[in-house]
Amino acid sequence: MNADHTLVAVFDSAHARFFEYKAAHGRLETVLEDVASGLHHDRREIDTDRGGRGGDARGGQGHVYESHSDVRKLEKHDFVRAIADAVEAALDRHKFNALVVVAPPRSIGEFRSVASGKVKDTVWREVPKELANLTTAELERQLVPVLRAPEG
To answer: 31 in helix, strand or coil?
Structure first.
């Protein structure tokens, strides 16, 4: 794949950053810095439907009924979908022709499940590592050797 306009999406379930990889210079140039998912907030702020208590007719000890939906899991899914949508919008605006996805393995799997076919077709490399919390300089040290390596 011709990677002359490469978008590098670095994310986890809490935040994402986007870079353009400048192969000629071996640099990552910030396109969009630290988009937060909102998952850093207290779980009590989002999980308002607390489990109810069940009891028996004699007034005995009841059991807590758990919510059937995991709100945090849904938020993570929605955040990864928003990342895939943002990547697709950049692709539609001809901002890149190759994509590098850098995320924990589970997040990469989630990305694959929600990304459109045309976004998946632009994926040049996947880096299944948790690197979202690194500085730009640290990311360059970790990623540029991977991006320069021949495809294999």
So the answer is: strand
Nearest to 63 by CA among 74, 78, 53: 53
**CATH T-level fold of 6-40+63-148:** Nucleotidyltransferase; domain 5 (3.30.420)
Structure-block tokens of residue 117: 């076919």
The ranges assigned to domains in the chain are 6-40+63-148
Q: Where does residue 50 rank: exposed (0-12), middle (13-18), buried (19+ CB within 10 A)?
A: exposed
Q: Is pLDDT above 60 for 23?
A: yes
pTM for the model stands at 0.77
Q: Which two tokens stand for residue 74?
A: 């849904």
73-85 average pLDDT score: 90
Q: For helices 71-92 and 105-114, what crossing angle results, to 10°?
A: 60
